[in-house]
Design a protein that fits this description.
Blueprint lengths: L3 E2 L7 E5 L7 E7 L2 E7 L7 E5 L1 E2 L4 E2 L5 E5 L2 E5 L6 E3 L14 E3 L1 E4 L2 E4 L2
Parallel strand pairs: 1-11
Antiparallel strand pairs: 2-13, 3-4, 4-5, 5-11, 6-7, 8-9, 9-10, 12-13
């Protein structure tokens, strides 16, 4: 299984405030010219996940609008286009192991959402 983690900055980068997040849903942030889908899952640990917003199968920036769920213990987002599921931790497509999306290290620090690498 291949995973791709994207380095966006040498230093932690605040991308939004905790209050900007929508529980059990995604938002889109622009980081260094790249669209990043940020998901807030208040009942999980960790509570925030970030992956590239680009759906490599649907060929569009739409993953932040996908439906979040759990498949056999894996937290996933379903693409709103063709419904492929992407693991929020690894970026791996569950239906096609050759396809991944970028993942970003992200965390809640006080009331801020911070990309840490």
């Amino acid at each position: 299984m291949n995973t791709a983690e994207n380095r966006v900055s040498e230093h932690p980068l605040v991308i939004c405030q905790h209050e900007d997040l929508i529980p059990n849903s995604g938002i889109c942030a622009l980081i260094d010219g790249q669209q990043v889908a940020v998901f807030y899952l208040p009942d999980e640990a960790p509570q925030v996940y970030a992956i590239g917003n680009w759906d490599p199968i649907g060929k569009a920036n739409v993953l932040s609008r996908g439906v979040v769920g759990d498949i056999q213990g894996r937290l996933v987002v379903a693409s709103p286009l063709y419904k492929q599921h992407y693991d929020l931790t690894t970026g791996q497509c569950l239906e096609n192991e050759d396809v991944t999306v970028l993942t970003y290290a992200v965390e809640l620090v006080d009331s801020q959402v911070v990309v840490t690498s």
